[in-house]
Amino acid sequence: MTTQSLRDRRDRALGSGAPLFYETPLHIVRGEGAWLFDADGRRYVDMYNNVPCVGHGNPRVVEAIARQQATLNVHSRYLHEGIVAYAERLAALHGPQIESVVFTCSGTEANEVAIRMARFATGRRGLICSDATYHGNSELVGALTHVGRRQPETYEIKSFPFPQTYRPIDPGLDGADLTEAHLARLAVAIEGLKTSGAGLAAMIVCSIFANEGLPDIPPAFMRRAAEMVRAAGGLVIADEVQAGYCRTGEWWGYEATGFTPDIVVTGKPMGNGVPLGAAAASKGLVDTFRARTRYFNTFASSPLQAAAGAAVLDEIEALDLKDNVRSVGGRLKRALGQRMQRWSAIGDVRGRGLFIGLEMVEDRQTKAPAPTLAAKVSNVLKDKGFLTAPAGAFGNVVKIRPPLVFSDADADAFLAAFDETIETLDG
User: Distance (Å, rounded) from C-alpha 243 to C-alpha 209?
Assistant: First the structure.
């Protein structure tokens, strides 16, 4: 079967327009560690997918899933010690403000739970998000995507310019002055919700602003923003779907960016491929949510999810993947930073741990975004066997986000391919 014939079948079966990466899509049939293999047996280094955080086909996770499925899997309305133990273990990875967990099957669902939790607790409906964020696909959570850019603010959803140092919101600002300017924009959003009558229920942010393009954040902004939100009576929701699970070299992105959330949302990497998400908070917040809803999820809080989730935590600890993220990610980021000397189209190299963004620009002085070039870089790298994708507020940031088992050898191979890519595109 050709790639095109499979694509035609896909359009009929799934409907035309279901997204695919790359100009020539890949037909992937197998994964192992940080590698993926296509139908012709060609190997690709996966530098994008954070779902298989402990590696594709991880033996420990596979064995745990198979053992549990062969023993028992059932919906959530029975007692099961494995589910309780997993929830206790997950909560313990946070500070004392996180005590209880509501399990879901996706980050979108978990964000919906977190928003409802905040609204019940505060008695208000207003939400604040960044102007270039993404938190999921449902009608409620999707209403937060690029508010103020692609869709308008509403009486209960306000946005603020995402914090960054690369393109200051007011020319010439940096350091503490830039922090104050961003906080002033956040204050406008808070006041807007007060004026509209919705009131402030919560600010929801990805802890590292991943979809915004992994910006370097003005000093102390996150800590002070959280304080400002709480002073106005709202809660702080940290979306850790991309930022968490040691991705930054810390267990949680909020540790890396210096703030304490009231509610933490996790998703993709939790089950290494098994659909698993969670909204975690204090017992008081979760109890209020439980009392106000009849929430349950047929496939969440299942023994299978708990077995997969616990195996992922076991593997992260056994392989010391947090240290691997710091070591390999730090080395890779430094090496990519050196490539800026060779190629002026790289405007900036940013990120933490094994989450790195290459900002592609038309000109370093004007910092004009170059999304077409970012797409070309990703396509050429794909042809050389390395999978990345363009992202960011302007679609011009080449996103590098491999599984946590990504090695120094994988990084060296990528750097060689990246050098070849520079030479190819630089003429």
Answer: 8
Q: Tell me how long the chain is.
A: 427
pTM of the predicted model as reported, rounded to 2 decimal places: 0.97
Residue type, 190: I
Tokens of 246: 């040691």
Taking every pair of C-alpha atoms in the chain, what is the biggest distance, in angstroms? 64
Q: What are the Cα distances from residue 299, in Å, to 59, 96, 277, 281, 304?
A: 23, 28, 11, 21, 9
Return the number of other C-beta atoms located less than 10 Å from residue 257's C-beta. 22
Note whether 391 and 399 are within 8 A (CB).
Answer: yes
Q: Which helix (H) or strand (E) holds 160?
A: strand 157-160
**Per-residue pLDDT tens over the stretch 219-278:** 999 999 999 999 999 999 999 999 999 999 999 999 999 999 999 999 999 999 999 999
Q: What share of the chain is helix, strand, coil (3-state, %, to 5)?
A: 40, 20, 40
Q: How far apart are CA 163 and CA 315, in angstroms?
A: 34
pLDDT digits (tens, 9 = 90+) for 176-199: 999 999 999 999 999 999 999 999
Cβ–Cβ contacts within 10 Å for residue 65, how many?
21
The two structure tokens encoding residue 153: 């603010």
For residue 202 the two structure tokens come to 């919560």
Locate 244 and state its tokens.
């968490």
Euclidean distance between CA atoms 167 and 178, whole angstroms: 11
Nearest-angstrom CA–CA distance, 406 and 269: 15
DSSP-assigned states of every residue in 310-332: HHHHHHHHHTTHHHHHHHHHHHH
Question: Which residue intervals of 123-213 are DSSP H helices?
Answer: 139-142, 175-196
Q: CA-CA-CA-CA torsion for 77, 82, 87, 91, nearest 10 degrees?
A: 170
Contacts of residue 23, Cβ cutoff 8 Å, sequence gap at least 6: 379
Residue bearing tokens 């090695």:
407
